[in-house]
From TrEMBL:
Natural source organism: Aneurinibacillus soli
Keyword match Hydrolase: yes
UniProt entry keywords in alphabetical sequence: Hydrolase, Protein phosphatase
Keyword GTP-binding: no
Catalytic activity annotation: O-phospho-L-tyrosyl-[protein] + H2O = L-tyrosyl-[protein] + phosphate
InterPro entries attached to this UniProt entry: LMW_PTPase, Ptyr_pPase, Ptyr_pPase_sf, Tyr_phospatase_low_mol_wt
Top enzyme category: hydrolase
Name of this chain's protein: protein-tyrosine-phosphatase
Length: 162
C-alpha cells in the first residue's frame, strides 16, 4: 500500500473528553510501536459540542499515562457533517454515537462500532465520565484490546507491510 495516501481514521464518542481521546491516543501508540505511522492520519471528535476546546478528562489522561500512552496535543472538537466525507474509518464508541453520526448524512467511508473488534465481546464502550479511576481503567482496557483488533483488521484489509 502507498504511504502517500494515508488511511484517515477518527474515533468518536459524545463529549470527546473521555473515550475517543483514549481511542486516538491508544491507536496512535499501537501504530507507532509497529512502525506504521506514515500510513495513518488519526483524530477524534464528539457528537456533542459541550466540551469543545477542552483537554481530555484527567481520568483518561491518568489511565493512559499509567500505560505509557500520551494524550498530549488533544483538544475536544465536535464531529460535524463535513467529517462524513473526510474519513476512511469512523469508529463510534457506542450505539448512540453511531446513530448520531448516521443522522448527519451518508458517509463516504466505513462506520464501525469499536467493539466489533473486541476479541472478548461486542457492545458499547462504557462511558467512564464522573465514575472514578477504576471506571477509566476498565474503559482503557476495553479500548486497548479493541484497538489491537481494529489495527489488525486494517492491516489485513489494506495489505499493509512494514
Ligand atoms: P465521552 O464522555 O463521551 O467519553 O467524552 C462524556 C463526557 C461528557 C459528557 C458525557 C459523556 N457530558 O454529558 O458532559
Amino acid at each position: 500500500m502507498s504511504k502517500t495516501k494515508k488511511i484517515h481514521i477518527v474515533f468518536v464518542c459524545l463529549g470527546n473528553i473521555c473515550r475517543s481521546p483514549l481511542g486516538e491516543g491508544i491507536f496512535r501508540h499501537l501504530v507507532e510501536k509497529r512502525g506504521l505511522s506514515e500510513y495513518f492520519h488519526i483524530d477524534s471528535a464528539g457528537t456533542a459540542s459541550y466540551h469543545t476546546g477542552e483537554r481530555p478528562d484527567l481520568g483518561s489522561i491518568r489511565a493512559a499515562a499509567k500505560h505509557g500512552v500520551s494524550l498530549d496535543g488533544q483538544y475536544a472538537r465536535q464531529f460535524t457533517g463535513e467529517d462524513l466525507t473526510r474519513w476512511d474509518y469512523i469508529i463510534a464508541m457506542d450505539s448512540s454515537n453511531h446513530s448520531n453520526i448516521c443522522k448527519l448524512g451518508t458517509t463516504s467511508g466505513n462506520i464501525h462500532l469499536l467493539r466489533e473488534f473486541d476479541p472478548e465481546e461486542p457492545g458499547d464502550v462504557p462511558d467512564p465520565w464522573a465514575k472514578g479511576d477504576d471506571a477509566f481503567l476498565e474503559t482503557y482496557a476495553i479500548i486497548h484490546r479493541s484497538c489491537i483488533g481494529l489495527l489488525d483488521h486494517i492491516i489485513r484489509v489494506h495489505y499493509i507491510t512494514d
